[in-house]
Structure prediction request, 212 residues.
Amino acid sequence: MGGHRLVLATHNAHKVHELQQLLADADLDVEVLSMEAFPEIGEVPETEVTFVGNATLKAEAVAAATGLPALADDSGLTVDVLGGMPGIFSARWSGQHAGESLPRAEKDRRNLQLLLDQLSDVSDEHRSAAFRCAAVLAVPGGQARAVEGSVTGVIVREPKGHNGFGYDPVFRPDGDERTLAQYSDAEKNAISHRGNAMRAMIPVLREALAQA
Prediction:
């Protein structure tokens, strides 16, 4: 399958490396490009109301603009007692701040604190939640294919751990006493919603490349 190129709809070099490793482990010879290779393509507005919808928007827009297969993902935290929120609003749960000029760490802190405040009166047995991720592969002239991955757990009452971002410090996966922010990178990748979605995407990608 040599010679195939795939655009990952992100500027995050870590995500590109992660996918490249996953493809290599699956014996797929694919060159993964990030959006850094296509500076003329701007950000795709995420105007849908589901993870799959937003990932599809990004994947289809990038595939159309580059003429190459494109893979995009969208993810967030869903809390059962909040009716599945923050969901697609996970990254901006505490609102827009000064034209989004705040540092990522401060946005994360505000989002996390608002979530804890909202759940302050909720008993432990009702604090179930899940991180969910949708990954979508779009091929120029073809139909987009979507897969999903998740990890279930509960929201703890105070942040623990420093190896994570977003809501990781307050999310404790089922079957463990640690939060995701107390996991090593390798441990987190092995169970994460994004890791699970990307692993589920491998057979879809293999089929698409075989048909290319």
